[in-house]
Amino acid sequence: MVKQKHPKDGNGRGDAAPVDGEAGSGSVVDEVAEPASAAEPEALCPPDLEMELAEARAEVASHLDDVLRARAELENLRKRAARDVENAHKHGLERFMTELLPVKDSVELGLSVADGAEPDAEKLRQGLELTLKLFESASEKFGLQELNPEGQSFDPEYHQAMSTQDAAGVAPGTVITVVQKGYLLNQRLLRPAMVIVAQ
User: Fold this and answer.
1) Whole-prediction pTM value?
2) DSSP designation for 117
């Protein structure tokens, strides 16, 4: 019996018969992609991000507004406290000066009586003058200002009329006599001047 020989390819090898389970000559095995083991977490969509950003900005603006309000309130409180301290100081100074003014009035009255007195009273007069000058110098440092409106027009804001009198050659409403001087303390009326006004 004669065995048939299989023709050889260019390499001198014969074509082998296909093996069971193998793909036929020229077939390609398609690869199948494996499915993902687990789904990735769903990312936030852009509208959600914009909403969260807007909310965050609004919250920051609200906190900033609170901080600015608190700072303004603190500054107002500081100014109010400083003003209260200043007012208390001025009020205390007003009371002090009010108590001292009668002393000044008495010294001035003593000087007016001593004018033209006997030579023995001259030293007393000089002493009173020195005392008065010292008082005026000290009180001016604290803002005390004298009101002596003789010859000026009557001003009800700073003057208190004791009476009115006829005065020849004087315009009506003019202060002709100052009974008691008035005073300002730091530009505020401490005591009005007591005056007699021409009618």
Assistant:
1) 0.53
2) -
